[in-house]
Amino acid sequence: MTVTICADHAEASARASAIVADALRAEPALVLGLPTGRTPVALYASLVAADLDWAKVRTFNLDEFAGLPPRAPGSFRAFMDEHMFSRVNLPPAHVGFLQGDAADEAGECARYERAIDEAGGLDLLVLGLGANGHIGFNEPGPGLRASTHAIALHASTRAANADRFGGDPARVPARGLTLGMRQVLRARRVLMVATGPAKAAAVSALTQGPLTTMCPASWLQVHSDVTLLVDRAAAALLRDAISD
Questions:
Q1: Interior angle at CA 159, CA 158 and CA 163, nearest 5
Q2: Which end of the chain has fewer CB atoms within 10 angstroms, the N or the C?
Q3: Do 194 and 121 form a contact (C-beta atoms < 8 A)?
Q4: CA distance 209 to 212
Q5: Rounded to an integer, what distance in angstroms lies between the CA atom of residue 196 and that of residue 131?
Q6: Rounded distance, CA 81 to CA 74, Å?
Q7: Strands annotated E in the chain
Q8: What is the mean pLDDT of each successive set of 10 residues along the chain, which is 244 residues long?
Q9: Residue 108: enclosing H or E segment and its boundaries?
Q10: For residues 57 and 65, what is the distance between their CA atoms, to the nearest angstrom?
Q11: Counts for the chain of helices (H) and strands (E), in that order
């Protein structure tokens, strides 16, 4: 794992954008895994401004709220349409997304797994980091699911997403659909951005703690190609980080 401490969120986002852009230019048919949330908003704005050719790219997002149709204002699909999909020349048929309102959740999760496998797997997976150490909707707990699955969301995760639901955590769906740890760890490259003081404990657990299901992100320690971009606030508890 390569850890780079950036001055602030803006620098971390700019570095992340450069890594994604370089990967896309090197492989126009890149299979790209993408996150949602506040952290990647600046990254997506930078990628939109970079004038890249997305015509052959395939994307697969990490997760979606259970029960929400794709066009619901609070859905992650609506978020991606707003911040990136509608602003680049990415063909709609090349967008992979979990269908939050699927009647058969298990069947939908299995379909998504097949779609990623049929695309050849993820070349580059971009991740955010939850303050409780979650990635996607893989929440801390006594065990982790390898495959794509439905899961009950922790209160902290619902609170972190409340801004998309009028600021009320109670309006955030109680369950989500998420890519499992198998696809996360099978991605050829992983790029994670974590910024702000609320992420410091999770960054420390991810990089310096034991492998534990109580910090799902800690399992990235076994991956062979992880780039972690943090700002100084998120790096506050690191002992031996690399600073560029």
A1: 100
A2: C
A3: no
A4: 8
A5: 10
A6: 12
A7: 2-6, 31-34, 58-61, 63-65, 95-96, 124-127, 149-152, 175-178, 189-194, 226-231, 242-243
A8: 97 98 98 95 97 97 97 96 97 98 97 97 97 96 95 94 94 97 96 97 96 97 97 90 46
A9: helix 105-118
A10: 24
A11: 7, 11
Q: What tokens appear for 87 in the block?
A: 């602003």
Active site residues per annotation: 63, 132, 134, 139
Given the DSSP bridges, would you call strands 63-65 and 175-178 parallel, antiparallel or unpaired?
antiparallel
Instruction: Give the position of tokens 């989500």.
Output: 176
Q: Which DSSP category does 138 fall into?
A: B
Closest alpha carbon to 207 in 178, 234, 186, 180? 234
Per-residue b/e over 92-102, b at no fewer than 16 CB within 10 Å? eebbbbbbbeb
The C-alpha angle with vertex 60 and arms to 219 and 134, in degrees rounded to 5, equals 30
Q: Which residue has the tokens 């801390």?
A: 140
Distance (Å, rounded) from C-alpha 221 to C-alpha 51?
34
SS3 content of the chain, % helix, strand, coil (to 5): 40, 20, 40
Residue 197, Cβ neighbours under 10 Å: how many?
13
| Residue listed under structure tokens 């004038």 | 51
